[in-house]
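Q: Structure for this?
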Amino acid sequence: MNIKKFISKPLKVLAPFVAASVMATNPVMADETCMSPYMVKIVGQEDFVYVWTLGVEGLGDGQDKMVTVDVNPKSEHYGKVIHSESVGGRNEAHHSGFTDDRKYLWAGGLDSNKIFIFDVHTDPAKATLVKTIDDFVSKSGGVVGPHTTYALPGRMIITGLSNNQDHGGRTALVEYTNSGEYIDTYWMPTDDNLQGAHKGGQFADGYGYDVRALPSKNVMLTSSFTGWSNYMMDFGAMLGDAEAMKRFGNTMVIWDLHTRKPKQILDVPGAPLEVRCAWKPENQYCFSTTALTSQIVLLHDNDNDGMWQADNVSDIANPADIPLPVDISIQSDDALLWVNTFLDGMTRAYDITDPHAPKEVYSKKIGNQVNMVSSSWDGKRLYYTTSLLGNWDKKAQDNDQFIKLYHWDGKEMTEQFVIDFHEEKLGRAHQMRFGAYSLYGKQAKVEQAKNPIVAMSK
Amino acid sequence: MKYSSLKVSLLVSFFFYSNYGFSEEIAAQGADKARDFYNEEHFIIEEPDTEGNPSVSGRPQVKFLDGMRVGPGDDKTGYETTGYVTNSVAITARKGVQADLIRVIENPPLGLPKIPVPDSNPLTAEKINLGRKLFFDRRLSLNNTFSCAMCHVPEQGFSSNELEKAVGLEGRSNRRNSPTIYNVAYIERLFYDGRESTLENQIWGPLLEHNEMAMTSFGHVLQKLSTLEDYEGLFEAAFDGRGADILTLGKAFASYQRVLVSGNSPFDRWYFAKEENAINEQAKRGFALFSGKAQCITCHTVQEKTALFTDNQFHNTGLGFKRSMGIKPEKERMLIAPGTYAYVKQAKVKLVGEGPLADVGRYEVTLDPDDRWKYRTSSLRNIALTAPYMHDGSMHSLQEVIAFYNQGGMLKNENGFPNVTQSPLINPLGLSEDEIEDIVAFLMTLTGDNIAEIVSDAFSAPVGDT
C-alpha cells in the first residue's frame, strides 16, 4: 500500500487545525523552546533530562547510550544519573526529538544511520529502547546521516546530512510515521533538479542539517552543514584539507509545509546550522547561525509575500577567531537568543527584541568546549553539554564532557550541578531533551527514592 | 529585486569583514597590533577575475563525456572566489547501463598492453558482475557504511575529488589520497608503498584495516556475506560451485577491477595511431617538454607501442620528506566559505586534531633506510579526472604539481636537515609558466575514450545498504 497516498492527504489538510488545537489547550507552550509547535507540553518543572551520549572507545562499555538525569530539585537524586540505556555500537549519536504525542524519543546515529526509538512515557525515569530503525539508508533511497528528528502531526520528519554515493553533503528530508514506517524522501533541490524552487542567489548545493516548521506561514526551513566525510573526520585533519573545506553548506531552503515541496533557496554562506523560530504569533521569523563565518542570520518574510530573505544581522563574538557557533536557543518571549561557541567554550545571550539588530548582552565561559544549550520554557534554567562530534571534540585535557545546569535570573547565571561524563564512564554528552511525569498524568513515585541511583540496562 | 539586494547585502557583509577592526581598532590598539590583526587574523575576500571566472585553473571540473556527467556531483570549481556558483546534480540522477567490460581482454584499448590475467583467475562475465556488486556494497564494512566505492567514487575518476586524504570507518584518518582504480590491472606492486602483490590479495587490506572498512577477520567477512540473501548462489555460479571463501572473494573483486581499463585517449590516437589532429599544438609542445626538458618521461614511461606512464618503481620526490620533516607555518590560510578565507593558528588546529600520521613510504615495507619517503610512480592516464594529486592529495592542480618538480623537490627542510634519499632524477627544471601550461595541456589529452561507459556501468550496480 502506498502509505503516503493513503494517509498524508487528510493529515496535511488537518495539520493547521491540529496545531491550533494543541496550542489552544496548552496555554504553557513547551518546556524547551526549540521543540516542534505540534508537541504536547510540559507544565512547570521538568523532572528529567535525556542526554544522547556518544560512546568512547576504551571508556566504560564504549557504546552510545541514552542517559537519564534526574533534574527535579525535590528529588533525592537531583543532579544524578538515574538510568543509562546502551544501544550497541558507536553510531555517532547526535540529535534526538520526540514524537508529537511525546511518548517516544527518536535518536539518530549520524554514522551508522540507525534511529533508536525510546519509550519515555511508560516510565519517564527510564528512557527505554523499544525499536531500532536499521534500514534508513535503503528505505530512503540513499540518505545518510539522520540528524534532526522533528515532530509533525502523526509524523517524524528527519533531516539527512549525507548520501550513500559519495559521502558528500547532498541529501534529503525523510518522513516516517510515528510508529516507524517509512513514508517518503524529499531531496534537497540541486541545480539539475530545482523541483520548482526559486534559486535566488548563487547556490543550490543540496545540503541539509536542521529543520523547523512555522505552521502559520505554512513553511518548513532547512539549513545546511556538511557530508559524512567531513563530520566524521578528525577536525584538525579537515582544517588542513583544502578540498574538504570547500564542502560546507551555503544555503537554506524554504519548503511548503503541507506539500513538502521546496519553494525557495536562499544563499547563506558559511554553514548555517540550528534553526529556531520565534514563538509569539506576531513574530513570524526564525534565526540561524553560521558555523564558519559566525553570523546570526535572520530569516523573514517581511513583505508577507511568501518570498523569504536571509539577512546577516550580527557578528557572533569575533568572527575572525572562528569561534564556531554551534547550538542556539531562543527564549520563549522572543527577547533573548542564547548562542554557544564551541571553540572558546562560551555561551552568549543576544538581545533580539529588534530581530534585525541583535546585541550581545551577556557572556559566560561554560567549559573548555561547549555545544548544546537547552532552556526551560520560563527561561530560568539552562542546561549545557559539551560534545560536538566524536572526532571534532577537543583532545586530551581540553576534552570536557559534562552536563551542567545553570539558573538564570535575567542578569547572571549560577551553576547548580555538573555531572562529569568521563568520571561516570558514560562518554561524550551531546543533545538534551526534557521529560516529566506530568506529561502522562503521572506523579513522581515516592518509592523512586528507594531505587538504586543508576540502573544500567542492556 | 529582492534577490539582488540579498546578494548585495551578503557581499556588503563580506566587505565588512575585510574592514573588520581596521577603521576603529587601528587607532585604538596601535599600528603594529592592528597590522598583525589585519594581515593574519581576519578574513580575506577573493573576487573573481574581470571576466567573472574563477582565478584558479586546473581544479577538477565537471565534464560531459559522451553525454555522461563525470566529476563530483557537488562541483566546487571556482569555490575560491565569491563568483562561485553551484553546479550540483541530484542523488537520484545516478543511473547507468551495464557494459560488456570483458571485451578489453581480447582488444585492449589503443596505447595499452595486453591485460595481465593470472592463470588461476581467468576472467568471466559472472566474476566481473559479482565483483562489481561487491565493490559497491557498503555492508562489507563493520557498521555497514563503507564500500570500496565510498573512496573510489566512479564519477570522481574512481578516486575522490572531495578529499585530500581518505577517511575510513568511524571517520578514522588515513594517510594517503585514494588512488584511481583505472588501469590498476597493470600495477605490479599495489598501494603507494607497493606492499601488496596481486589484485586477488589486495582486497583484504581495505576490508580488514581498522581505518578503512574495519571488518575484524577473514571469517567475519565471509560469515557476514553468507547472511546476505542477495548473494545466494552468485559465488557458486561464478566459481564452478565453489562458495565465498578467502580466495573466491579476492578473485571476484580482482576481476571487476581488472577490466576497468581506459585508453585510446587523444594522446594515444596522436602518438600511436598518428592522427595528427587528435591533440592540439599546445599539447604537442607539452609532450615535447614532458619527454625532454621536464624529464617527466624518465619515470612516467612511454614505450614504442604502448604507454603506462609509470615505471612501477618507487622514488623519493621530496614530497614525503616535506610532509614528515618540513616545518609548518604558524598560521594557515583556510577557505571557510566561497571566496572567504581566514587564518587559523596551528595551536588552534592542534586543540581539535590528533595531528598528522607518520608516513615514511616504501621504507615501511622494506625497513631499508634508503627507501624512506619513496612512493610508487602513479600512472598519468585519466589524470584530468583524479585531482587532488600526489600520494597525500596535497596538490590541487597539475600546475602545482609541475611547479613542485620544477623547483627540484625538497633537498633539505627549513632548518637545513637533508633529504638524503631524494631521487637524483629530481632536479630544478627551469620551466617557464607557459611551458608548465603546455605540459598541463598534454596531460589533459590522457583521458580514455570509454570513461562514460565505465561510469555508466558502475552506476548500473545497486549500492548495497542495510
